What we know:
7-stranded mixed sheet, 5-stranded parallel sheet, 19 strands, binds flavin-adenine dinucleotide
Amino acid sequence: PYDVLVVGGGPAGASAAIYAARKGIRTGIIAERFGGQVNDTLGIENLIGTKYTEGPKLAASLEEHAKEYNIDIMKSQLAKRLEKKDFVEVELENGAILKSKTVIVSTGARWRNLGVPGEAEFKNKGVAYCPHCDGPLFAGKHVAVVGGGNSGIEAAIDLAGVAGHVTVLEFMSELKADSVLQERLNSLPNTTVIKNAQVKEITGTNKVDGVTYIERESGEEKHIDLQGVFVQIGLVPNTDWLADTVERTRMGEIVVDNRGATTVPGVFAAGDCTNAPFKQIIISMGSGATAALGAFDYMIRNQ
Ligand code: FAD
């Protein structure tokens, strides 16, 4: 059996595996795609200490760093089930069962897509998902935020500080965000909220030049000229495979304590798949380190 088996090879998983291996314990990592969401990122400007890097470059260096250590790296493997017996068992899609004294789940999350024409085509060319990451690219420009929940309105308030104008497009007749956020948004001079708006298409040639939506009451089609669209209709954690083994929130996020421990002894979690409030590379790396040290501490107390 492993001492520490990490499931997920994004920033959280890579960090957890390196921290574990540095304790000289038997460490494995399963990753469907090493690097995780980082692979889909163009410019990264907020990994402190690195002024600028790019997603694929960072993903490759995470893997290189992990390879410096004695870590069993199992790529292109999907975990499909976890069970706590004497050891924690993780079953893979290919039927293999791996056993470990501790497991760190770091399977990340994915942004929910709108699924309209132009969204995939203009990803990183005006279509964005993370205001903390990409907001500054739209300084002085007109952007739309699609989604009027908490994350959408937080994004709109955040973007209003850098962008020229922010238009929020909400599908329903009301915003779902907390009223304090709505009030804050309404107090800003450069924001507009359009409700009952169904986004139909993100338009552009090489990059985004506008958004077309249907006014649901009238059925009329409208177009706004703008340079960016932030899609904020939900971040979905990749945790369905855990079923009801560990406690998860209503949103599916794994509940962890300040050592990364879940409700199952010996099972830890880190990164975007957890109920940590903010989802960023540096935060995921930190929580991966925390979970690995938490797992090590658990192990030396439960041998
Ligand atoms: P992930 O990166 O999601 O990694 C999850 C890992 O688990 C992957 O290896 C995946 O293949 C694997 N996995 C999933 N399910 C299974 C399974 N069942 N079995 C085995 N493996 C599995 N953050 C910043 O700080 N700065 C930025 O500039 C930035 N830009 C971003 C731009 C985009 C387009 C996106 C999508 C995100 C961006 N983020 C940015 C957010 C950042 O990428 C995430 O917060 C971070 O990658 C989360 O790390 P993680 O390790 O928790 O999860």
